[in-house]
Amino acid sequence: WENQTPSLNPALELIVLMATFELAQDCSSFVHGHSGLSDYIWTHMAANAGDKRVTRLRVDDQKQVFNEKYLHSEEGLAKLLDEKRAIKEGMKPTKIETVKTAVT
């Protein structure tokens, strides 16, 4: 889990995320793309808006962002990991099934 942040400074990035979340609560418009974080921020903006109107503008037009080529790389990685685990445990590899879900 270590060093999974672009700046390699997790404390700073957490402060930035928390500040963004708090400051967004006072905004009347929210412009964003596909992101779980942006959905979370929007949910709280709308819930805490009170009687003011809050506008949401999605730059991706709510299109599906998932790219088909990533499905195959995921399957390949899952197969490789399954084989490595089976070798380590002295077992036969099991079949990996990938369930494709739509991203909203």
What would your notes on this structure say?
47% of the residues lie in helices and 8% in strands. Helix 2 links the parallel strand 1 and strand 2. It is mainly alpha-helical. The chain is built from three helices and two strands, in the order αβαβα. The radius of gyration is 20 Å and the shape is elongated. The model has no long low-confidence stretch (mean pLDDT 77). A two-stranded parallel ribbon has the order 1-2.
Radius of gyration: 20 Å
Q: Which strands sit side by side, in order, in the main sheet?
A: 1-2
Helicity range of the residues? 40-55%
Q: State the major sheet.
A: 2 strands, parallel
- Are there runs of 5+ residues with pLDDT below 50, and where? none
Principal-axis shape: elongated
Averaged pLDDT: 77
Strand content: 5-15%
Total strands: 2
Structural class: mainly alpha
What pattern of helices and strands is seen along the backbone?
HEHEH
The DSSP helix count reads 3
What is the distance, rounded to the nearest whole angstrom, between the alpha carbons of the first and last residues? 26 Å
Identify the notable features of this structure and list them briefly.
104 residues; mainly alpha; two-stranded parallel ribbon; 2 strands; elongated
